[in-house]
Amino acid sequence: MQGKPRIISACLRVCLSLSCLSLLMWAEGGAGAKAVKAPSVKLPGPAFVALETITPDHIRWHVRYLSHDLLEGRGTGQRGGDIAAEYVATQFAEYGLKPAGDHGTYMQKVPLVGITTLPETQFSLNPKQGEAMHLKPLDEYVAFDQTQQPESNVDADIVFVGYGIEAPEYNWDDYKGLDVRGKVLLMLVNEPPSDDPKFFKGKALTYYGRWTYKYEEAARKGAVGVLLIHQTQMASYPWEVVRNSNSGEKSALKIEGPALKVASWIHLDVATRLASAFGTSLDKLLKDAQSRDFHPVNLGARLQAHMVSKIRSFESQNVVAMLPGSDHKAADEAVIYTAHYDHFGVRPDMPGDNIFNGADDNATGCGILLELARAFGTAALRPHRSIIFAAVTAEEQGLLGSEYLGKHPPIPASKITLDLNYDDVKPLGAPEEVEVSGAERTNFFPSVQATAKEFRLAIRPDARPEAGHFYRSDHFSLARVGIPSFSINEGMKYKGHNEAWGMDQEREYVDKHYHQPSDEYHPEMDFVGDSAVARFGFALGWEAASLPNLIEWQKGDEFEAARVKSQ
Ligand SMILES: [Zn+2]
After folding, report:
1. Of the four, 20, 305, 310, 338, which is 20 to 30 A from 46 by CA?
2. Nearest to residue 5, comparing CAs of 54, 69, 40, 57?
3. Mean per-residue pLDDT for 490-501?
C-alpha cells in the first residue's frame, strides 16, 4: 500500500488545486464572499481543510477492524453485529457528534423477528401427472414463512402468473383480475424486457422487477405463497447468492399487514421439470409471459409445504449521530449520510470458512461514513444545516434498518434535504469515474455534475441499470419516504487501467466473492478510491447543507408523491 497512495496524492493535489484557487477567493472575501462567482466546489476554507484530512488509511483501518474474523461477519442480532454497532457509536462519540438515537443515545432500536426455516420443513411440488417432487432445501429451493408463525401448512394450486406485475401506468397486468386468494404463485423475477424507456424504463429495472415487490403484491392479493424462478441472467446474480441470502436466520421488521406462508425461490431446473410435467416447456412459459396478452396459467400442480420455523423476537440497532447546523434557522433541517454495517454473520452449518466478513460489503461504506463523520465533526466550521450520520442494520435482510430509520427519522423526513449512501465501494485504486445513479432524478444534479468535474471524476451512467441497484441499497428506503437519495460509488475506469479491467474486477467479485465468506480484507487493498469518493461526498453534503432551498425530486419522478405526502 506504499506505492499507490503516493501516485494518488499527487493526482488529488492536481485535482484539488482548482478548488484551492477558487477557495482562496472565498477565504479572502471572508464570510460574505458570495459575490465571488467561482464555478467550483463551494467549500469555505475550513471545510476544505477538513476535506483534505480524509485519507485512505483512516478508511483502511476501519475496514480492517470491522471485517476481522473476531467481528464474526457482523450478523444482524448476533454478537459481532452488536460489537460493530458499538464500535461505530464509540467513534461518533470521539468525533464529538451528538447522539441522535433513542433517549439521548446513539442507538436506535429496531424491533425485528428472526425466522429460521427448520430442517423439519417439507416442500414438495405435486404435478397432476407423474411423480411428486420432494425438493432439497438450499440446493433446489429456499423458503421463508413471512407470517412469523412457528408452523404453517400450505396445500394449494400453483398458478403461473408470468412476472407477477400489475402496473397500470405501463398498461401491464399479469393477473388479469384472477382471484389468487389461497393460491401459490409461480413467477419470474425482473420485468418484461424492453428497450423502450417509456415501458418499465427500458433496460433499467424498476421496483416492479424486484423480488420484494413480487412478494408484497402477491400478499396484497391474498396469495399464500410465491415460488420465484431463479435464472441467473434475470436475477443478475447466481443461485449461490440466493442460497446464501436465504439460508440460516432471516430477519424481518415485526409484521404489519398481509404476509405469505411461503416466500420462496426455486432453482431453474425445478421450474423446468415442473413445466414439463405440465406438458409444456419452461421456455414456452417464459415466452408467453412476455406478452401483454398473457393470462395466468393454472399448472394443475399443487405445492404441499409444511413450514416449520424457529421464531425469535429480538432487537438490533441503527447507530445515529448528529452534527448540529451552525445556522439557527437551518439547523432543524439536515443532510444524512448512510451506510449499512451488517453482513451475514457466521453460518455454523457451513463447512470450512463460514465467516461472512463483508469487507467490501459493507465495511468499506462504514469506513467512509466514519471518515466523513470525523472530518465534519472535527472541522473548524459547521455547515448551516445539520448533518446526520447513520450506520444502519439489517440491510442484507432486505433494507430493514434503513426502512425503520425512514419510518422513524431523527428529524421529520420532510426536513431531510438529501441522503448520500455508501455501499460496497471497492478498494481498487484511484477512480476516474463516479456512479451517482438516481442523482439525475433530483434538482441537485447540476451541483453533482459540477462537483464531479472539479474532482476530475466522470459521471458514469449506471453500469447495469437492468440490475436495479437503485432499489437494492439503503438510499431506496429513504427515497420511499420522499427524501432525495442516492448512493455514491466508483465507476469502472481506474487510473492506470482501462475500462475492461474494471469490468473484469467487478465480474470476478460478483462471481466469486459477493455475499461469500471470501469477501475479506487483504493488506494489498488500495483505499485511495474510497477516500476519493468520501471527499467527493463530503463536498456534496456540505453544499446540500448550505443551499438556500431543500433539494427536490424532478417533476413526475416515482418518489415525488412520497415527498409531497411527507410535507
Ligand atoms: Zn450485500
Report:
1. 338
2. 57
3. 96
